[in-house]
Amino acid sequence: MFFFYAELIHVWLLSLHGWLTVTVKIMSIYLAALVVFSYLAWIKCIYYRHRRTMVKSLKHVLNSSSSRESNGSDFRALIVTAHPDDECMFFAPTIIRLVELNASVHLLCLSKGNYYNQGAQRQQELLNSCATLGIPASSITILDHKKLPDDPKAEWNISVVCSAIVQQIRAHSFNMVLTFDGRGVSGHANHIAIHKAVRHLAASGQVTDDCCFLSLVTVGLLRKYISFLELPISWLLPSCLCCIIGSQGYKQAKAAMLCHRSQLLWFRYLYITFSRYMFVNTFQMIPQGPKNLKIY
Ligand SMILES: *[C@@H]1O[C@H](CO)[C@@H](O)[C@H](O)[C@H]1NC(C)=O
Ligand SMILES: *[C@@H]1O[C@H](CO)[C@@H](O)[C@H](O)[C@H]1NC(C)=O
Ligand SMILES: *[C@@H]1O[C@H](CO)[C@@H](O)[C@H](O)[C@H]1NC(C)=O
Ligand SMILES: *[C@@H]1O[C@H](CO)[C@@H](O)[C@H](O)[C@H]1NC(C)=O
Ligand SMILES: [Zn+2]
């Protein structure tokens, strides 16, 4: 009799153990799914929140105290890049969001991208890419200056870059200038030269009071290539402006990338798929120096 009960308990324990193992496995799968789902939901929340707050943060950047309902046409932005394709590789989320808000967006590209003697073709590709992003040809300026060659080994003359930018600001009275930061996203010397020039402009106070200067934050390798999964990190870290696009905007950015046919090597497709710059841009303010003080 006793042995009978012992055997029964043993069998019962064994099946309990089996059930527990299965339950734990199922639970951990559910838990993992929950974590993934929550993370994606968080990204979605950030995206929708951003859509509502972007105008507010733009106003904050411009320090405009006007309380009237703003419809975006108050923002006149100049994007300064070094080469055809910089605009869609690095600035697509910014351009797409600003155009969506009806801001007036201009592009100043400081070279024709003539490193491999493809200048003429790349210039046309730039026009196509900008049309895709929503910048009309009349709002694009492409320089072809012998002191500003497309060459990672060439030192660009800072004062030439400065005067090109100042000329644009004066001609169209922009109130925001957006460009690379000191690491130039990809570290290209031409990108960094533009940053130096803009820093100089900001510090020397040569331009009007109501123009602010913003630099595109360069992120590390890991953050750079985890696509939209990087979004919460960008959102949590302090920045003065954040531009985020959703799947619709991404399609537009991708179409713009595909306009640069001469640049479409296999690694470009990897970039389109994995780069965080296809979804989100964050900017820092470049500090401005004393106003109306001519330094040179
Ligand atoms: C923003 O504007 C107000 C006046 O409108 C001024 O007092 C304040 O100093 C400005 N802030 C910055 C950071 O320029
Ligand atoms: C946007 O605001 C400007 C004035 O600031 C006004 O002239 C224009 O009609 C407005 N546009 C829309 C679409 O509301
Ligand atoms: C931009 O302008 C168009 C037409 O002028 C208008 O329909 C649209 O609502 C505007 N968008 C924003 C975000 O103000
Ligand atoms: C930059 O160009 C200006 C004229 O455009 C020239 O005066 C200056 O010497 C140049 N600077 C350098 C470092 O080459
Ligand atoms: Zn470039």
TrEMBL record:
<dbReference type="GO" id="GO:0005783">
    <property type="term" value="C:endoplasmic reticulum"/>
</dbReference>
<dbReference type="InterPro" id="IPR024078">
    <property type="entry name" value="LmbE-like_dom_sf"/>
</dbReference>
<dbReference type="GO" id="GO:0006506">
    <property type="term" value="P:GPI anchor biosynthetic process"/>
</dbReference>
<dbReference type="InterPro" id="IPR003737">
    <property type="entry name" value="GlcNAc_PI_deacetylase-related"/>
</dbReference>
<feature type="transmembrane region" description="Helical">
    <location>
        <begin position="20"/>
        <end position="42"/>
    </location>
</feature>
<keyword id="KW-0812">Transmembrane</keyword>
<keyword id="KW-1133">Transmembrane helix</keyword>
<dbReference type="Pfam" id="PF02585">
    <property type="entry name" value="PIG-L"/>
</dbReference>
<dbReference type="GO" id="GO:0000225">
    <property type="term" value="F:N-acetylglucosaminylphosphatidylinositol deacetylase activity"/>
</dbReference>
<comment type="similarity">
    <text>Belongs to the PIGL family.</text>
</comment>
<dbReference type="GO" id="GO:0016020">
    <property type="term" value="C:membrane"/>
</dbReference>
<protein>
    <recommendedName>
        <fullName>N-acetylglucosaminylphosphatidylinositol deacetylase</fullName>
        <ecNumber>3.5.1.89</ecNumber>
    </recommendedName>
</protein>
<keyword id="KW-0472">Membrane</keyword>
